[in-house]
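Narrative summary of target 7.
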Amino acid sequence: MSFISVFDVMGPNMIGPSSSHTAGAARIAFLAQKMITPPLKKVEFTLYGSFARTYKGHGTDRALLGGIMGFSTDDMRIRNSFDIATDKGIDFSFTPNEVETDVHPNTVDIHMVNDQGQEMTVRGESLGGGKVRIVEINHVKVDFTGEYSAIIVIHQDTPGVVAYITRCLSERNINIAFMRLFRESKGTTAYTIVESDGHLPEDIVESIHRNTNIHDVMVVQM
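Modeled conformation, tokenized:
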């Protein structure tokens, strides 16, 4: 017998008329901000499809900005996210793109810059019911949902790196729910995404980073 949760049917509580345009938008941005060292200095949102046409009226803009500041989907501060972001000194903008149509109808690109000058671009899709999918990181195609805690490792595509990552996880008794490798092309930059159904220890970043072929390690703790 299969079961469907109430969350799957109704989605999370959220301010706004559509869970795709509000809860999903906030969730994408919430995941994106976990991939860059805070604090954020600047964020640019490029919206596609339905997002591009209705982002103001449906509150997608407020939801995205709230999520990028780490607000959960039911956080009442989302109503005032524009004012809060301004008070925090975050430079933000929204640009609708109705030219590029070969994308999911609820898609957003989030380009982030922190106060150290680090930049990160994340593309996410809102699938409905508050569920989302991250499909690009720095223009490399990836695929993860944020339903599990995740370790995102940016590394050189060279033999032995993935084995090294799994050894680091095994030594800390981290259970792997899903593990995927994505790359630009052979021998260039690769992304290994490991999703775990347990808590990820704080020292895992330092441990993985010891390998000289590792460029960056990000933990998305859920």
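The chain has seven helices and ten strands.
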